[in-house]
Amino acid sequence: QVQLVESGGGLVQPGGSLRLSCAASRSIFSINAMGWYRQAPGKERELVARIISGATTNYADSVKGRFTISKDIFKNTVYLQMNSLKPEDTAVYYCYADPAGRTIRDWGQGTQVTVSS
Length: 117
Prior knowledge:
The protein is an all-beta fold. It has strands at 4-7, 10-12, 18-24, 31-39, 46-52, 57-59, 67-72, 77-82, 91-99, 106-107, 111-115. Strand 4 and strand 5 form a beta hairpin. The relative contact order is 0.32.
């Protein structure tokens, strides 16, 4: 089991930026993939971004060109840099990890991102 601690959420104005962090309790060498989902009230949970072994990345079309996912193997941390934020980005963002050798996904506690003037 991997413990995931999220941070970096908050309230920003449209056009602003935030950086989310997801710190893992063990080496990310043993994790096949990490990323973020988000969920707004009354809406289905959406995959926002993910990063897999070899640093391959994928993004939802709605955030492509604005969000960047990256990892720091020395800090066991994955980051989501969010630029040019829109009100439509308002949601709770959940970090996840798919550890090698396990079929059950681990989740962070969630962090609220609110984009409003």
